[in-house]
Specification:
By secondary structure, the chain is mainly alpha-helical. It contains five helices and two strands; from the N terminus they run E-H-H-E-H-H-H. It starts with a strand and ends in an 8-residue tail after the last helix.
């Protein structure tokens, strides 16, 4: 089974002519195929009885036992596959953007923490509550180590996302899905 969309056809005959692939057989065979396809379209799509009232872009089920023009109809599975691939590629792009934003904020957050730990307020809290001195020391060490840890984490994230992107491209090629749109 294939699907197609109406593109303003006002008759089932016009739709049939657009959907059928050109045939090199005799004129009698072509006319028979057109009549048979018209009957098949009407059988699968009773709404085509009133084709003139249907909106441009209305989906039509196309019988699969006819030579169809490749650019005029498509398998629903390939449409779903393409939609799923586009969704995965968009998700991957969003993940890259989110990680980039998060990684860009970390140095400022680390700097803010270091500054606060050196502030009079932090020193005052540390004197009032001796247990905080150890917590603050641990936080200061974490802020100091953050740039190196961030660089390693960012490299790992980028490598993982690149691997996913390669697998998606391989899947797309293996299943003959059109290339991703920019």
């Amino acid at each position: 089974m294939n699907i197609a969309e109406l593109k303003g056809e006002k008759t089932v005959k016009a739709l049939t002519k657009r959907l059928l692939a050109p045939q090199s057989k005799g004129k009698t065979a072509a006319k028979t195929s057109e009549a048979e396809m018209e009957a098949g379209l009407l059988r699968l799509n009773p709404q085509l009885q009133k084709i003139g009232r249907l909106k441009h872009g209305t989906t039509v089920v196309v019988p699969d036992n006819f030579p169809l023009a490749r650019e005029e109809s498509q398998s629903p599975a390939s449409s779903l596959g393409e939609a799923a691939m586009q969704r995965m590629e968009e998700t991957l792009a969003n993940a890259r953007a989110t990680l980039k934003e998060q990684n860009a904020r970390l140095p400022a957050q680390s700097s803010d923490l270091k500054s606060w730990l050196k502030s009079d307020h932090a020193k005052s809290l540390s004197k009032k509550t001796p247990r905080l001195k150890k917590v603050f020391a641990t936080a200061a060490q974490a802020a100091k180590d953050l740039p190196n840890e961030q660089a390693a984490s960012e490299a790992t994230q980028r490598k993982a996302l690149d691997a996913i992107e390669k697998k998606l491209a391989a899947f797309r090629a293996r299943h003959a899905l059109p290339a991703a749109r920019p």
